[in-house]
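Support reply, case 0932

Customer input (verbatim):
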Amino acid sequence: MEAHLGSTVADVGAGEGWFTRKLAQRVGATGTVFAVDVQPAMVEEIRYWSVEEHLRQVIPVLGAEGDPHLPDGQVDAVLVVNAYHEMKAYDAMLRSFYQALKPGCRLVIIEPEAKPGRPRAEYQKEHVIPAELVKDDSARNGFRFVAQHPDVVTPDQHHWPLLVFAKPRPTTAQ
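Our regenerated output:
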């Protein structure tokens, strides 16, 4: 993920902000972390602790079902952990991520894995999603698949694939 000192990143589906805190440390005071969630209580929780901890680089954002409300062309990386499977307007969200990312920058999605072949609504109920479905959705919305890294192992020993996508850089005409 392109999260380094001074970069602009987004934690979409931030919840209470566990990853937001980690990203804030990584980007430092000169960077920006957009902490996006669709639940007002989660956004307020992040607002509260980011003020208490003097993390001015954290910007809490109340997202919508199909729009994370990120600035166009200003984001170096978007991180989505355990939230993509919840998105009913996934194509609209992916288009918004694409619009927000700078060319060549990354979208990282970490989700509980499931076997393909069932209706999407079943995956949403079970809070899982097949990696192949995420790859297909992302490709359809302009992203290039970069890599699938070894699984992230959760504290309760579940294995979640870490998928990396990139917004392609514009090609120059010869």
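We compared this against your earlier run and they match. Two observations from our side: The radius of gyration is 16 Å. The chain has five helices and seven strands. Please reopen the case if you see a mismatch on your end.
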